[in-house]
């Protein structure tokens, strides 16, 4: 299996962090010596010395790499650098580059990848055929997002918004939620607050139309939609109609916008945002995120308060839930985040709160998971923001080195029992079979995918570098960093194949994002290096991915909406077309090579 680590950082055990089996140590050494970088700076350090010298060593390597790249660029003369691209609607797109070319972008409308005009041309040049499905959503495509409640009259919407199910059903849902592992991953409510919200909503003394009535009802309707995503269902009544519950919560939210902000309101907004994100409705998710973040700021959740301050624990949990989702969506869609790190106190929850059930984020891998989100935020701002896309090659590689170092320090700080490996290997005996994966292991699985995605997104930026050798190829060091992104994508696909039996409906759209992103990276690598020994094996990933997605979807009994059916069919058709084109690129390259 593919093992990968970064060439930039030193391991305490003396293992050079190279792309094992793909980038020989001699090639990396040659790159450093060619550019005047002393190889001794990469000499292994002992563990007790590493902590003391890592800062000085990192700074020295940054200066040397920057100097070498600057000299290389000056020798080649000024080069034009592309900036952020946008379509006719002003939508910004997240650049996916490969060996210096703009080969595609991630559509900022729904988070799924598509090829730009330049990318489509490049694919045709490499394969001899045009791609059939250039985009998931184009400016010419009909809008797939259904506005909340558009199929209902205002009178029907009002009637829906005031109807809660039997109180026993909600109490049963609350009990099931507290027993599930998702309660620990998404601590939207404190342990006692959920029951209190239910009792308040059904209290005979509460006035209809009051802030308390609207906020609690909105929160509970959103809660029913939210929990249905994870397959929770009460035996006391019929299955919950999640979209209908979401519509009720959305209608109530419209009335709450004219009232004072409350914790219940921001809870409802987060659950609605998550519900829309899981369904692939990124535009709706964006609107709820914008509302929720502003309410958080009004409530002061972006400021750290001591845990003993009443209500501060739940508010900070909500802040971190929004923060994590905000940074994830920026990475997936390329849109700027709603939360600016500079405007927030990012003090992590105290370690001693792990024993407190109200501090459920600690069960979500605790501050470690939050630290990974902070690294994602820095990666986006440093590499893919408007200013990040305008960096010189030296500045870009400097940022990659720093982020890679930070990501590795995060990885080794994670407890060994759930530390993400450098690469996934099905041959490892410690890997459980999919049928043996317990519910409480799902957070660990998601963290593994998030780590691989973060590694891929950091090193993917290196392909923007314009430093080439005499043969027209990126210099070895830059190529090695780009290879790390491909290796991370391979490991992502290996892992998704391994857990395919666990792809239940509630995780399907989430897994779909990882799959499409990884497949596109591997596909671009095949087109860039069609004669590489790994190209033929990489095609197997492309060929099996659509079948895995269909199988994962079949494990759920949930009924897809018309929009979801169209989206799934379009994505799988797109992936099948990539599998068709990849062998053509290899065949064409072999024919041209004679």
What does the model show?
- This protein has helices at residues 25-34, 47-76, 117-127, 154-161, 167-179, 182-185, 193-201, 211-228, 242-256, 263-278, 282-299, 312-333, 366-384, 393-413, 442-460, 476-498, 505-528, 534-554, 562-593; strands spanning 94-98, 101-106, 113-114.
- It is mostly helical and 594 residues long.
- The chain folds into two domains: 54-82 and 365-593, no CATH class; 154-363, no CATH class.
- A three-stranded antiparallel sheet has the order 1-2-3.
- Strand 1 (94-98) and strand 2 (101-106) form a beta hairpin.
- The longest helix has 32 residues, at 562-593.
Short description:
The chain is an all-alpha fold. It has helices at residues 25-34, 47-76, 117-127, 154-161, 167-179, 182-185, 193-201, 211-228, 242-256, 263-278, 282-299, 312-333, 366-384, 393-413, 442-460, 476-498, 505-528, 534-554, 562-593, and strands spanning 94-98, 101-106, 113-114. The protein folds into two domains: 54-82 and 365-593, no CATH class; 154-363, no CATH class.
């Amino acid at each position: 299996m593919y093992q990968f680590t970064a060439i930039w950082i030193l391991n305490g055990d003396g293992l050079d962090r190279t792309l094992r089996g793909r980038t020989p140590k001699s090639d990396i050494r040659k790159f450093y010596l060619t550019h005047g970088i002393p190889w001794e700076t990469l000499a292994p350090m002992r563990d007790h010395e590493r902590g003391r010298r890592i800062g000085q060593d990192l700074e020295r390597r940054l200066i040397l790499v920057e100097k070498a790249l600057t000299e290389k660029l000056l020798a080649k003369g000024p080069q034009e650098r592309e900036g952020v691209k946008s379509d006719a609607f002003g939508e910004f797109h997240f650049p996916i580059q490969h060996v210096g070319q703009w080969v595609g972008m991630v559509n900022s409308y729904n988070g799924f990848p598509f090829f730009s005009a330049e990318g489509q041309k490049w694919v045709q040049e490499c394969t001899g055929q045009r791609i059939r499905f250039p985009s998931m959503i184009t400016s010419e495509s009909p809008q797939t997002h259904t506005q909340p409640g558009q199929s209902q009259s205002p009178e029907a919407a009002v009637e829906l918004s005031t109807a809660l199910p039997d109180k026993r059903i909600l109490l049963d849902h609350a009990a099931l939620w507290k027993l599930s592992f998702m309660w620990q991953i998404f601590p939207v409510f404190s342990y006692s607050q959920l029951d209190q919200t239910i009792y308040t909503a059904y209290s005979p003394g509460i006035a209809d139309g009051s802030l308390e009535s609207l906020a609690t009802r909105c929160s509970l309707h959103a809660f029913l939609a939210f929990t249905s995503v994870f397959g929770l269902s009460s035996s006391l009544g019929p299955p919950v109609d999640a979209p209908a519950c979401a519509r009720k919560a959305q209608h109530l939210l419209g009335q709450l916008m004219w009232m004072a902000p409350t914790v219940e309101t921001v809870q409802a907004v987060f659950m609605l945002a998550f519900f829309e994100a899981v369904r692939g409705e990124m535009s709706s998710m964006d609107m709820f995120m914008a509302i929720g973040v502003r309410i958080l700021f009004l409530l002061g959740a972006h400021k750290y308060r001591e845990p003993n301050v009443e209500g501060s624990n739940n508010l900070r949990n909500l802040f971190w839930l929004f923060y994590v989702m905000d940074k994830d969506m920026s990475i997936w869609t390329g849109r700027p985040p709603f939360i600016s790190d500079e405007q927030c106190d990012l003090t992590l929850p105290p370690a001693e709160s792990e024993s407190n059930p109200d501090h459920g984020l600690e069960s979500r891998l605790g501050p470690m998971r939050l630290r990974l989100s902070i690294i994602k935020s820095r990666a986006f701002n440093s590499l893919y923001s408007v200013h990040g896309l305008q960096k010189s090659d030296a500045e870009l590689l400097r940022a990659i080195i720093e982020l890679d170092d930070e990501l590795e320090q995060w990885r080794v700080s994670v407890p060994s029992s759930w530390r993400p490996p450098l690469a996934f290997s099905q041959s490892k005996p410690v890997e459980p079979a999919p049928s043996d994966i317990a519910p409480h292991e799902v957070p660990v699985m998601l963290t593994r995918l998030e780590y691989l995605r973060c590694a891929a997104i950091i090193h993917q930026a290196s392909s923007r570098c314009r430093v080439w050798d005499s043969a027209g190829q990126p210099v070895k060091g830059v190529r090695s960093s780009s290879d790390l992104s491909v290796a991370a994508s391979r490991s992502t696909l290996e892992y998704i194949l391994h857990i395919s039996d666990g792809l239940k409906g509630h995780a399907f759209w989430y897994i779909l994002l990882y799959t499409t992103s990884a497949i596109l990276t591997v596909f671009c690598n095949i087109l860039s290096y069609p004669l590489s020994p790994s190209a033929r094996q990489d095609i197997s990933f492309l060929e099996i991915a659509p079948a895995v997605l269909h199988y994962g979807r079949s494990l759920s009994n949930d009924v897809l909406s018309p929009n979801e059916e169209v989206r799934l069919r379009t994505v799988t058709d797109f992936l099948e077309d990539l599998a068709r084109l990849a062998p053509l690129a290899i065949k064409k390259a072999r024919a041209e090579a004679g």
